[in-house]
């Protein structure tokens, strides 16, 4: 059940966000710039989003009293964290406008629901099956084409809770190491490239699509996003078509990310995220509106805008590994002509933890990639 705001929500109103990480922080920045107040619901004492927002309701995501407080404070609520219990979103929805719809969030929370959703709606995805006990692994592996990936059905992120396997024994031990929880087994895709589409949809069914992003991962974590993506027009058009199909089939409202594998001219959907996405951070410096601006507009019952890109961009993720590297300082990144740095304000750096991103903006992707390579060369152990 969609509960659109009865009239557009305008500056001066208060917007709520579930989750207090960097996505919430950038949402809060976008909303605040447009004149909204922001209330963050997050269990941590402080954090990237709470530090820059008007209100912080500090409680668990299933705390009814905290959720009621959020609903009372806000004119609309969204989420930055896809593992918020759908029940909490439903509770909020009975009191205040919520986007995206809990049902869409529920689909994205479970890899198996996500895959079934793709199959049921004719959205291309890679071959897969479900395993819930170790004796099912040999069978599952045999259905794949020699190399396969096992992924926990829930709570995976940044490559955690998944492993590429070349034989049955390897997959069995991976399954055990994940605690023998329900897992998805899928074909390993020898892709030429990975791409993602960020789409923003309003309550009336209008949508705006951001330019196709090309993504490179390192150790399962997004490393670089390159826009324009270096793929054929056919691939770019197919990707946009698939993104519209996914959003349409979900009756989606808000900002949605769709990750895909490209092999030749073929696309397979890997997964979706019911929120702004790391691969959309480039929009903060290279398009007329950012994905966070659109998250604000959509939840407020406003129409989407036409998105135009004004410069080629390469986004570099900054992980804890770089921040902890000998000789690292933020200072050289500040005030460079060719980039903008976005630091998330996390209290401590850890291996693999997302600390910041840098958007290199300029005339050509090739030039930007060489600037990124030059920058990285100073930190050989971090990459
Ligand atoms: N079936 C596959 N074949 C080849 N590579 C894969 C496959 N599944 C995942 N990968 C690689 O691992 C990366 C992370 O996988 P995936 O997006 O499924 O997991 P995640 O941990 O949920 O990531 P995210 O941080 O995007 O939420 C992918 O972007 C891709 O590079
Ligand atoms: Mg992913």
Q: What's the total count of β strands?
A: 18
Q: Which sequence of SSEs, written as H and E, runs from N to C?
A: EHEEHEHEHHEHEEHEEEEEHEEHHEHEEH
CATH second-level architecture of the largest domain: 2-Layer Sandwich
Biggest beta sheet attributes: 9 strands, antiparallel
What does the average pLDDT come to? 96
Q: Kindly report the CATH topology of the largest domain.
A: D-amino Acid Aminotransferase, Chain A, domain 1
Which ligands accompany this protein? Answer: adenosine-5'-triphosphate, magnesium ion
Helix share, percent: 25-40%
Sheet-strand content, in percent, reads 25-35%
Tell me the distance between the termini. Answer: 45 Å
Number of DSSP helical runs: 12
Multimeric status of the protein: single chain
Number of structural domains? 3
Task: Please tell me about this protein's structure.
It is a single chain. This protein has 383 residues and is of the alpha+beta class. It folds into three domains: 14-98, Rossmann fold, CATH 3.40.50.20; 127-187, Dna Ligase, domain 1 (2-Layer Sandwich); 193-377, 2-Layer Sandwich (D-amino Acid Aminotransferase, Chain A, domain 1), CATH 3.30.470. The chain contains twelve helices and 18 strands. The protein has helices spanning 22-33, 64-73, 86-93, 102-109, 111-120, 137-142, 168-177, 233-249, 283-286, 291-299, 320-323, 365-377, and strands spanning 14-18, 37-41, 55-57, 76-79, 97-98, 128-131, 148-152, 162-165, 183-187, 193-201, 207-209, 213-218, 221-227, 254-263, 266-273, 313-319, 339-343, 354-361. Strands 10, 11, 12, 13, 14, 15, 16, 17 and 18 form a nine-stranded antiparallel β-sheet that branches. The longest helix is centred in the middle third of the chain and has 17 residues, at 233-249. The mean pLDDT is 96. Magnesium ion binds at residues 259, 271.
